[in-house]
Amino acid sequence: MKKLVVLTVVIMLLFSVAAFGARFDRKETMYITGGLWGPPSNFNPLAPWSAHPGVIGGIYETLYFYDPITDSLSPWLAESGGWTDDDTYKLVLRDNLTWADGTPLTSEDVVYTFTLPGSVDGIHYVGLYEKFESVKAVDEKTVIFDFSDPVYQEWGYQLYQIPILPKHAWENKTPEEMTLGANIDTCMGSGEYMLEDTAQDRIIYIRNDNWWGNEVFGQPKPKRIVCLGVPSNNVILGMMMKGEELDFANSFLPGIPAIKNAYGIHTFYDGEPYMLSANTAFVYINTTRPGLDDPKVRRGMAFAIDPIRIVERVFENMVLPSNTLGFLPIDGWMKYYNEDIANEKGFYYDPEMAKKLFKEAGMKDVNGDGFLELADGSEFKIEIICPYGWTDWMESERIIAEDLRAVGINCEPKFPEYNKYFDDITSGAFDLAVNNTNTKGTSTPWTLYYQIYQDLINGRANNGNYCRVEDPAIKELIDEFNRVPLDDEDKAMEAVSKIEAKFLDTLPAIPLWYNGMWFEANTQIWTNWPSADSDNNLYYPSGWAGEWQQGFLKILINVDLK
Amino acid sequence: MGKYFRRKIIIYLITFFVAVTIDWLIPRFMPGDPINALVGRLSNYPQATQVAYSNLQRAFGLNIPLWDQYLNFWKSLFQGDLGISITIFPKPVFEIIAEALPYDLLLMVPAILASYFFGNKFGAFAAKKKKLDNWVLPIWYMLTATPYLWLAILLAWAFGVVLNIFPIAGAYSFSLTPSFSFDFVFDLLKHWVLPFLSLFIVQLGGWAIGMRNMIIYELDADYSKYLETMGVPEKLIRKYAYKNASLPQITGLAVQLGIIITGAITTEIVFSYPGLGHILNKAILQEDFFLIQGCFLFIIIMVLVANFIIDIVYVLRDPRVRHSIGGEM
Amino acid sequence: MKVKNEKEISNTKEILYFTFKNKKMIIGMCLFLFFLLLGVFGPYLTQYGPMDYAGPGYHPPSSEYWLGTTFFGQDVFSQLVHGLRSSFGVGLLGGTIATLIGLSVGFFAGYKGGVVDEILMMVTNVMMVIPTIALMIVFAAYLPYRGVTIQAVIIGCTAWPWTARAVRSQTFSLKQRNFVSLARITGVKTIKIISGEIAPNMLSYVFMVYILQFGGSILAAVTLDFIGLGPTMGISLGLMLENAVLWNAIQLGMWWWIIPPGLAITLIVGGLYFMNTGLDEIFNPKLREM
Asked: With an 8 Å Cβ cutoff, are A417 and B287 in contact?
């Protein structure tokens, strides 16, 4: 036993004096986290719901760059683009674009990408493809998109969503590989970075030194980006407190307001609310359930819930309560926010108002249990669900249920497992549910309404419309909005106002608070992070998958070594 | 000897068969549809959903009759194919587990062996000193009563946050890539200490108590008394007692394995140690049934293999077992 | 724990005497009763519900919040005393089920021997290999929401194998004794022999098994809670620990949130173990403290 101890000590000493080995040069490397949830597995740009951070944007680039903070769509691979008439969009690429393997990136690649759904099943932008009459390359640099059904809002969104694929590399793939493949060995794009290596808990990207954009935008500073899959948020907080282990995180870290200053952790706003808003958390209401099918009852519930309490208790004021329409506070959406309608028809926290609305709906406490019954005397008992383990939502849900009970609505918070939750909200087996699917910042609130009101497929609401509203009139209004050219803001305002009024009148979903664009950074190695206090450094700090072309690509160029 | 092992092996095979069958049932009999959840991430474009659904169903092998699925499962099992993870799509479950397993072994094997060794030694040592025994016994009892995860949390808080001398997350620094450099191995050891300690300390108490009780029984047994009256030195008697007492301890180890593995899972969660437990936790929270199935399969195999090793050790230490066919497994 | 001579336990007076003289027994009982009473009456000592937002978050222990508050400002003391109730509930129900199953299987296998023994032991071995969590996951998926009761039932239904094994070998050795053979020769039914002859002889042993199963169930529940398979409604000690870790209590140094729940579990289970050893000594004079 003694020998064992001695041996261990000797070995330990040996190791401690040994020369330092294979560490990346810290001054050339940026460590980021927040978007990698498990061992790296998917580098397929055609699977945006599963591809890792950096795949879209960092490796495979989009035609445009979109900045949600200033609501500006700026050319990236494109040099220019515009509608030449109502049905035709002309796109011109930049000069000297190249793929990482040296092959030029031309209009052929763009045509190939946008027409791929015609020959391969299961590509997610097939809906857009169906609205093309034709997509043709005029010369090396120019592509003409001819629309049979010009969907302006959607097009403006897809211009920065669809990554351009290298035709010469993708032609050899089978359809199966294209849609379901992991694309690890064949991951080659045109972007700032290239895939260098992966390990169980990380993706290592290495700078593409021959990137076409070096002269246009400047060279990104870090030679390597190590994208870490840190297992839990408390670990991320620990690394942030230590400092040199992590540069950039996109995670909700409880406690940031309390320790931010002591540990020098950088956030977008120096004080409250600390974070930009990323998406809106709604309480979706199943409008087919008895009682909940009455707009008065739904509106009454909206008046009963106090979002401020959620924001304070659960999020320590790191997020903001939502406005009455659920619009993110970004220019692209707020320019369509109709104040008059919001003031006239909107809701706010007022329990007395809630009680009044319930009374108008004919609800009263028949059996004297302290909770209201429906007008026909039947019991009104509802549940609110969110996935088990989503701790911030679970806490929020408890507060919501408490508020509803305070005005006489018998509401229980429940936490089913994620799959059951998902099954329930898609098949309509729920009363109330907290969700934020597809409410993230885009160039247009069309995406929000499209999501809330889209068609059910075989009775299932796989991608939205959890409220199960079946109203052709509102679908019509949304389509009308989609077809307004992007530059005709008056007409767009008119179209969207009709939707807003209808939304507030019927209120199938109650917007409550904005989930934060969680962003924490360390300044020990890299500085000049995006900040609300600087004028020229307002990039959207999202390193999440599929969002690098909304700010992170420019952050990488903009940061400085300390 | 041959007959004994043949019998053992048959028992193990049947156990394996039944356990694996139950394991197979897990993802198949779940009420929710795992593919629906995956397809649900296909945001925005409903048209793509249908196609993706059938593609995925084929990829997961769920579109054939149950009986064929069962046979296929066995077939692919022997090819090391456990299906595809849903949370870590489309990575094969086998690969995920193979990457995690070394960390489990690194943590559990030394912890079990060291606690077993030192626990038995301390227990036997204390058994002969009444005064010491009265002092340390309560401590041992409290140790075995401690939940692994709580001790892990305490160690993390005390040594990781308050004293700040050991890292409390991961198997190695995130600034390093795995390699065989001194730098890396040292870092690995530093991260290993606290999770190891939390497993080691809790188990230590159990073995010590077991051995202490056994020794007291053995010293009181007729043969010890007989030897004593024969004038055999006490040291020798104790040696015999220790040898005899260690046999039930070995069986105890086999019984404890399941609990130890579950304990290790929670420890890994506290320290974010990238082993099976950590992956299983994630799979449970995200309802990734194929990954859960794969994790359990490996846990089952680990328990069986460990049991088998214990059986062999038992036979080696106690030749009598060869003859007692009707005895305990 | 060897089988005791029947003469040793026949003398009730002697046992009672040693029970109250045995320090381990008394300490164990005190610990156990302390937490039991705390669980029963504690909720009346606090004005806050376990999930209520009682005050400011991150509040260290004070006269107002005896054990401080959680991240959200819930009262830790209130959570602790309510959590104790679930823990005792799980121990009682889970421990009882596990003991009953383990005893029945063990007795029966040991007494009948042969094919019955082979089959029962096979089932026992399989149960030993399948992790509790596996069954928990399956059940969890079928039940819309998990409660403490169902958790206890599942723990009980999976924790019995070691008891079955131990009881089986005890029965084996008892079976060889004269009084049992005598009963068998005179044609008494199996059940009668088990309940009339063997079981009483193992009563002390059964009692000790029950204590261990009680404690084991509490520990198992904490583990399940912690990995996300706890009750979806209400509070338990395991859930407190899970929440503490998830909400960064370790990094933020909120010791008042992480120490009490674990300490309570350790002391309760430790107390049970003390009682177990104490009992062992009472029934088995050779082990008695000098």
From this structure: yes
Q: Output the tens digit of pLDDT for each of chain A's 562 residues.
A: 555 555 565 555 454 444 334 578 889 999 999 888 777 888 999 988 778 999 999 999 999 999 988 888 999 999 999 999 999 999 999 999 999 999 999 999 999 999 999 999 888 888 899 999 999 999 999 999 999 999 898 898 999 999 999 999 999 999 888 988 889 989 999 999 999 988 877 899 999 999 999 999 999 999 999 999 887 788 888 888 887 889 999 988 988 998 888 889 999 999 989 999 989 999 999 999 999 999 999 999 999 999 999 998 899 899 999 999 999 988 889 999 999 999 999 999 999 999 999 999 999 998 888 899 999 989 999 999 998 777 889 889 989 998 999 999 999 888 877 767 888 888 889 999 999 876 777 888 888 898 888 888 777 776 678 999 988 999 999 989 988 887 888 899 999 999 999 999 999 999 999 999 999 999 999 999 999 988 778 899 999 988 999 999 999 999 999 8
B and C: number of Cβ contacts within 8 A: 159
Name which of B49, B176, B189 is nearest A462 (Cβ-Cβ). Answer: B49
Please name the member of A228, A244, A462 whose beta carbon is closest to the beta carbon of B39: A462
Report the residue from A19, A124, A176 with minimal CB separation from B182.
Answer: A19
Calpha distance A265→C285 (Å, rounded): 64
Mutate to test the interface with B, among A462, A466, A475 (most CBs of B within 10 A): A462
Whether residue B202 lies inside any domain: the answer is yes
- C-alpha dihedral (B94, B100, B104, B106), degrees to nearest 10: 120
Cα nearest neighbour of B103 on chain A:
A200
Report CA dihedral (B119, B120, B123, B125) to the nearest 10 degrees: -120
Looking at residue C92, which CATH number applies to its domain? 1.10.3720.10
Q: Cite the DSSP H helix spans in C176-254.
A: 178-185, 190-193, 199-201, 203-224, 237-246
Cα–Cα distance between A182 and A180 in angstroms, integer?
A: 7
Tell me, yes or no, if the pTM score tops 0.90: no
B243 and B148 belong to one structural domain: yes
- Which residue from A195, A206, A211, A194 is spatially nearest to A102, judged by alpha carbons? A211
Q: Smallest Cβ distance to A313: which of C72, C140, C145?
A: C72
Q: Report which of B33, B29, B40 is spatially closest to residue B57, judged by C-alpha positions.
A: B33
Is there a contact between A201 and B174 if contact means CB atoms under 8 Å apart?
yes
Cα–Cα distance measured from residue A326 to residue C100, given in angstroms and rounded to the nearest whole number: 57
Its domain, for residue B12, covers: 2-78
A419 touches chain B (CB under 8 A): yes
Instruction: Report how far residue C226's alpha carbon sits from residue B280's, in angstroms, rounded to the nearest whole number.
Output: 13
SS3 A31: strand
Q: How crowded is residue C132: how many other Cβ atoms within 10 Å of its Cβ?
A: 20
| Cβ–Cβ contact B91 with A under 8 A | yes
**C156 φ, ψ (degrees, to nearest 5):** -60, -40
Say if the Cβ atoms of B89 and A422 lie within 8 Å.
Answer: no
Of C51, C140, C251, the CB nearest to A237: C251
How close does chain C come to A234, measured CA to CA in Å? 5
**Residue B326 belongs to some domain of the structure:** no
Q: Give partners of C (≥3 CB pairs < 8 A).
A: A, B
- Indicate yes or no: CB of C144 within 8 angstroms of CB of A420: yes
Residues of C in contact with A401 (CB under 8 A): none
**Quick one: tokens of A304?**
């009963």
Contact A462/B at CB under 8 A: yes
**Number of helices and strands in chain A (H, E):** 19, 20
C118 lies in which domain range? 75-284
Which CATH number does A64-170 carry? 3.90.76.10
What ipTM was reported for this prediction? 0.85
**Into how many domains does chain C fold?**
1
Top-tier CATH class for A276-516? alpha beta
